[in-house]
Amino acid sequence: MPDDSHLLTDLLKSVSRSFYLSLRILPAPLRRPMSLGYLLARAADTIADTEIVRREKRIEYLESFRCQVEADEVEPSLFREIGGSLTGHQNSPAEKVLLEHLAEAACLLNNTSGEDRDQLKFVLRGLTTGMIQDLEDFPGNSPRELQAFDTTDQLDSYTYHAAGIVGEFWTSLCCTHLPALGEWDQKEMKEAGIRFGKGLQLVNVLKDTPRDLCNGRCYYPVSLLKQAGLCPSDLLSAESEPKFAVVENQMIQMALGHFKEADNYILAIPRREIRLRLACIWPLWIGLKTLGLIAAERSILNPELNLKITRGEVNRLIGQSIGAVCSNSMVHGYTARFMDEVSMTIGR
Fold first, then answer.
1. How far is residue 269's CA from residue 223's CA, in Å, rounded to a whole number?
2. Is residue 29 part of a domain?
């Protein structure tokens, strides 16, 4: 057996940034399957993002990855081969180490059974399908090769496969392991979990706009851009900022709509499930604070822009959450206040 304490703690922390906080605070029965799912998903994402490797080859690796996680028994040697072929192309030391340990993560998956294994298969299949689709939708790597979604339905499908499916997976595992959720309507809560994930992914889309445009990706649907008198290539110019603000605000409103469901999701968690509540509160509040930075930014198309809330702000949110976690009115009050701050910034 590989050292899962190293893989699911030290290595996980090095590649998961703020989401590591949620994974570590989770109730004990959820920690291992959630952490393993994130680690393998992060590895697949690293495969998809290794631009120095030909796109066709990355798609081939992702298809092999998807086939393996769906198999009755994963072949660690194949994961070792994939990781080894990409290790030398990584600028991030953490991602390099992740690929070096990909075969060990495969062994952990082999030693996962029952409902946890089924749910891991489900989420990893969906995530890798989305990554493959993303590489096919956006075949370029530069502004000259810029492509965009045509419709909001395509955007919605993208946010589902990138993060909404994680909310579905998260909900299924919670219902499997936590008897306190026995009264949940699983279908209803899975839908809320999906919207929670979609909201978080929309924040990523908004935050990463300049970088994505430079890499040939425009996640803003042509149908929305046209309403503002824009085409995708216009977003490469700072002169488009005033018109683009209309589209940006529409996307922010979409995210806020999803986050209203995320608020309901958290309030439906029994108050005695403190760890699960905190694990959900933190990404929501961090997402809302990041959305506030985006709404206030007047140069969202600036390629040098790097929007990120400070570590001090994250610590303040954690402190507020610990004081509020057992009170529905306090949790909702903070969430509503953060949402109002975003809405008021849009209106300025």
1. 38
2. yes
Q: What is the pLDDT along the chain (348 residues), one digit of tens a residue?
A: 455 667 888 888 888 877 899 999 999 999 999 999 999 999 999 999 988 889 999 999 999 999 999 999 999 999 999 998 898 888 888 889 899 999 999 999 999 988 999 999 999 999 999 999 999 999 988 999 999 999 999 999 999 999 999 999 999 999 999 999 999 999 999 999 999 999 999 999 999 999 999 999 999 999 999 999 999 999 999 999 999 999 999 999 999 999 999 999 999 999 999 999 999 999 999 999 999 999 999 889 998 888 999 999 999 999 999 999 999 999 999 999 999 999 999 856
pTM recorded for the entire structure? 0.95
Instruction: Give residue 15's domain range.
Output: 1-116
Rg, C-alpha atoms of the chain: 20
Shared domain for 206 and 236, answered yes or no, is yes
Token readout for 213 is: 């445009």
What's at 65, amino acid-wise?
A: F
- By the 10 Å C-beta count (0-12 exposed, 13-18 middle, 19+ buried), 342 is classed as buried
